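Slide 14.
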Amino acid sequence: MKIAIMGGSLRKGSLNLRLLGHIARSIMALGPKVRIASGHELRIPLYDADAPPPHEAVALHNLLTDSQALVIVSPEYNAGIPAHLKNAVDWVSTMTPTPFRGLPVLLASASPGAFGGARAQMQWRATLANLGAIALPGGITVPLADRNLDADGVPLDPRTAAEVQKALAAFLDLTGKLAARP
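Slide 15: predicted structure.
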């Protein structure tokens, strides 16, 4: 099974990039192959319907088309979706075949705030539903992440650490069940 992971902020010290790394290592430890799109791969020119897709958007489309599932690790900017991630999804959504229809998606976020990025996840759910993706009902939120993630993105709080593993197990179970369908 191939799992794509997309996200993080464009900032080098990103809490979400740390969490992304932990999620990637946790998934790989369970067997699936993981491919990541973050940082410069998500620095895509603004969506323009009159322009051909830039090579970064085509590469992301190819990654998602070749994956059985997607994890989006998204910061929360002003209680919403970061522009660079939404822009990447907008570009890919215009290409055929659409990789989103029926694609299982796990949402994850880390924030120094008390909500752990949950407000951005609500907006992601609306966007993903419109694209035909299947967002896992739960998600991963890491509140107070500036104090609750170690340097490798591992949650220091035992309850949060357990919730991450529980969400990953449910996500991989759903992905396996959907992949087994004819």
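Speaker note: The chain has a mean pLDDT of 95.
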